[in-house]
Amino acid sequence: MKPTLQDRFGRRVEYLRVSVTDRCDLRCTYCIPEGFHGFEEPSHWLSHDELVRVVGVFAGMGVSKVRLTGGEPLLRHDITGLARRLDALPGISDLSLSTNATQLARYASGLHQAGIARLNVSLDTLRPERYAQISRRDCLGQVLDGLMAAKAEGFAPIKINMVVMDGVNDDEIDDMVAFCLMHGFILRMIETMPMGETGRNASYLDLQPVKERLRRRFGLVDGVLPGGGPARYLQSPDGAFSIGFITPLSQHFCDTCNRVRLSVDGTLFLCLGQDEKLELRPLLRAGISDAALEQKIREAIELKPQRHEFREKPGNVVRIMSLTGG
Ligand code: SAM
């Protein structure tokens, strides 16, 4: 029988998001403040060996899906080598990566060969000036080159994550739909989450009215996408075209949460929006055995909160997304 990891609410934890760095080469206004100095000491980062070991222990408990994230994961030294090692672990059947794509043109081929099949790319706008305003870096051209390299490489699917902000980029939704349709990408719109002051100050937009407008405009129906995660999808009646909505505030999806997050310093976060956690680094560096590590992780999973409280307590989460591992 397959081993399982289950929390006290009966939710199976099958998905580990692994942050391989908290650094990013962008400074998105809703994520990392310009001039931010709160990054982790490199000596506190889990090494490749430590990351592979922790993921291996999770795999032994039934976790089969792993996503590499950050910060910007392509900034981590030898990310391709790390991906290859994780992909080779018994039990890991789905290795994916989230990236801002600034460096993707260089890495697309190596990552694909290393075993990453699915890619999520963050893209909030197709307008160069607006991209520079939102990310505080003038590099949309580089990002689009990266995206096209990934398409040519044959990653499937490529999902485009667009954080939609009221009065900032919500006038571009139809352009993004057309862009994704043209290239065969799956667009997923995301509501801003009140993570840190940057997240709380972002111009939140309720995506439910957007969803209803797009449903009517393109004649879409409710749909399901295999491995679709927390997104709710609208699809064309023949299923050929999908648009996802990640709506943690207007319609949360905590009942089906199947994931936990490992930050680069070895903290296991049990919920994006709550503080329950287990510090794995001190255990690893004190020479804990795999069996004892597994026991500690099982005890921590018992603490997984029922749900976030982004709406009720927006001031709760002081960590920005980039530090947690988005
Ligand atoms: N750098 C990688 C990337 O761009 O996909 C991975 C990390 S990034 C923190 C992960 C995702 O979190 C990005 O799509 C980003 O737009 C999103 N994000 C960051 N802060 C957010 C917030 N406060 N609310 C909603 N999404 C946020």
Provide a descriptive summary of the structure in words.
The protein has 326 residues and is an alpha/beta fold. It contains eleven helices and twelve strands. Strands 7-8-9-6-5-4-3-2-1-10-11-12 form a twelve-stranded mixed sheet. The chain starts with 14 loop residues before the first strand and ends with a helix. The site of S-adenosylmethionine has 23 residues, from strand 3, strand 4, strand 5 and helix 11.
Condensed summary:
This protein is α/β, with parallel strands linked by helices and 326 residues long. It contains eleven helices and twelve strands.
| Poorly predicted ranges | none
Name the ligand types: S-adenosylmethionine
What is the overall silhouette? Answer: globular
Largest sheet, spatial ordering of strands: 7-8-9-6-5-4-3-2-1-10-11-12
